[in-house]
Design goal:
Layout: H1 2-6, H2 14-23, E1 24-29, E2 35-39, E3 45-48, H3 60-66, H4 102-105
Antiparallel strand pairs: 1-2, 2-3
Amino acid sequence: MIKQIFTWWNSQTIGTFFYTLFFGKLVGRDESGNKYYENKNKTNRWVIYKGKINASKITTDWYSWIHFIKNTPPSEKKYNKHSWQKPHSENKTGTKESYKPNKIIKKNKEFKKYETWKP
């Protein structure tokens, strides 16, 4: 609770907490546990993240709703997913789970500024 009062990167600030308490209407949740709200006039929309705040946690369906591209939230209307669509994952850049090509993972190799081309 103290963490939530004094830090903005843990879910929400105290200002967002009170605004949500008095003016917010819960619209839905996504698979990650993020909660989506809008005010009674339907002029403001916001998200309260589960865990640390990271904008890439928002799925594409909720992204289009929160940016007023679509007016129906994904919780009310199930959008058709294609078989080739992958499940949503947040951006892992800067974390230990980030993508590292095989060239960088090799630890015993000496790195040069360039490598010669071998036919």
